[in-house]
Amino acid sequence: MSHAHHLLKLLLLLLAVLAGSQPHGAVAAKFEVKDVTNKTCTIVELLMNFSIKYETVEEKEKLIFFPIPEDAVVSGNSTCGKGSSESSLLVVTFGTGHSVSFSFSRNSSVYYAEKLGVAYNLGDKHIFPDARRNDVSFSSESTGINAQVNTTYVCMTAQEIQMANATVVISAARIEAYVPGSDYSKEETVCEADKTTSTTTVPTTVTPTQPPTPKDPVSIKYNVTSSNGTCLLAQMGLQLNLTYITKYNKTGVEIINIDSNATASGFCESTSVGLSLKSERTSLWLFFSMNETSKKSYLSGVSVHINPFPEAQGGALNVTNTSLNYLQATLGKSFKCSSKQILQVSPVFALDVFKAQVQAFTVQNGKFGEAEECLLDQNNMLIPIIVGAALAGLVLIVLIAYLIGRKRSHAGYQTI
């Protein structure tokens, strides 16, 4: 596998995890470390999502992604350290033998979240049902997080921390180590990413303006190709239909068309294919899988990441679903649908697809195979046939009635 291909897989992994963060109603997990006198020394509040690459019993690489669960707890191994130069440690445990840790240090003016560590138990069959190994793996990496002492580090923007076989994405973060009081300091150190994406415009009303509905998106042709040939060929128009909670706790709606300015890329694997469409503020991933038993390909996952999204709480929106079963077609054939399809990805996000023809995995000579029409198109073709047949039947009934009536009328004038 080439270096570029490997990087592309990591990008897929990142965006899938970004979109794996909970929808607009998500609540960040909050963890506190206290010293022996029960005084708080470290507070970490954030959304955290993991993606892990592991080897299956069939000796294939597999990616799995999941958020930190609600029942995660602060471990007794956490410590506040001693003195102004001592390291402190937050360890959070969850599930069967999994943990994540932050190690902190400081000098007289700045504190640092030096390392983020992740330990994951491949023997946990709930998360890794087909893992070849059963041991606990550990990875760590620098975070780049630092803030002025006696201030709260704030970063709403998603941040990726990549390790050997694990990627962690944190967002909506509020972190403070060496807390001087019992809660966050009032002063904040805002991360650079938030400074470049935030807006200071204050609207004159708390009621969000409903954006005008855009026209149907233009149908665009996409293809994903590797050294072995084309693994995905698609012609379609895509529209994002998003519902979100605004910063004023109102419900907002945003409709975004994916246009030809979006940068397209992707990846090809033996049982998975990905298409990435990235524009200035929108990243969309479409994941296709293969059912080797039924010999079908299908859209198995959709991830969307919108940043900046100043109207929404948190300034960004991330949604994913990797348990979908849309755009299904027999391997070697293409899925085709001229009708608009509404693919419900989550309660807050639907992907609207227009004039679609899609073929994944087995694409011969860069051309679509035989088309399998969607049910909507079949029904649309069937309706005029039924209506036509009904009208023809009605005409026939009227004609028969007319002929019978005419025959009886002639019979009344026969000579005796």
What features would you describe in this structure?
Strand 2 (40-55) and strand 3 form a beta hairpin. Strands 1, 2, 3, 9, 10, 11 and 12 form a 7-stranded mixed beta sheet that branches. Strands 13, 14, 15, 22, 23, 24 and 25 form a 7-stranded mixed beta sheet that branches. Strands 16, 17, 18, 19, 20 and 21 form a 6-stranded antiparallel beta sheet that branches. By secondary structure, this protein is mainly beta. The model is unreliable at 1-26 and 197-209 (pLDDT under 50). The longest helix is centred in the last third of the chain and has 37 residues, at 375-411. It has helices at 3-20, 192-197, 375-411; strands at 29-34, 40-55, 61-67, 73-74, 88-94, 98-106, 110-121, 136-148, 152-155, 159-162, 166-177, 188-190, 220-226, 229-245, 251-258, 263-268, 272-278, 282-291, 296-306, 317-321, 326-330, 334-337, 341-346, 349-360, 371-373. The chain starts with a helix and ends in a 5-residue tail after the last helix. It is built from 3 helices and 25 strands.
